Amino acid sequence: MNESIPDSEALLMRYLDGELSDAERSVFEVQLAGDPALQQRLESLRSALAAVRLHGIREEVASVHRSLKAEGALSAGAKVVPLRTRVFRALAVAASVLMVVAGVQAYRVFSVTPETAWSEAYAAYELPVLRGETDSASALVAAYGRGEYETVRRLALEHRKLTPKEELLTGLVHLDRGLYGPAVHHFNRVLAIANPYRPDAEFYRSLAYLRQGRLDEAAAEARRIRNTPGHPYAQQFTDKYLRQLKWLQWREGM
Length: 254
Hints:
2 domains; 69% helix; elongated; 13 helices; Serine Threonine Protein Phosphatase 5, Tetratricopeptide repeat; mainly alpha
């Protein structure tokens, strides 16, 4: 396979979702036409996606069935309309066939969670000391260095204006506490002005988006970081992580 197209599975998923540009799609379809193995992977992913969507349809139909039964429309002894029976049987057979064809791909789609995606990308922040900084010995920075996170939150509330470094550390504390909205707020403040901590804020904001369920924003920021030459966090967003995000997006769209 041509090595000029890395992570073919991620490209296949973007292709299936119509996310490639016209130029990207043209190049990729030429590659696809000459690569039988890639074509097979495309069909496998297409089957997995169909299984995911069919699972959602079956759940909706079953929900309607339960509601009707609860309302008395389908009593225990009531005769079910034959067409409905055939529909349920057809759905069951189709789901079984699709799950066999999709195999491991479908299992991976259903088993991924925001927590597993987080674990794939997350990296603990290491507190640097940059030349020329004036806040290295500030009470907030010192408290963060000692792991006194509640003190960091208190000091952030007491001070009206924080330095970019203090904003970042406050955002990290909120991220650690599961307070993703406030975390994003502080990361956005870091990104509002030029400073050395912007790459850190971009990375951790993307992870906060993931935990908030803002999957489209998390994926867009992750891809941008991944494709930015020299970005210090580019390697954290692996092919596996980007696939996991795509699977979560597929499930959300069921």
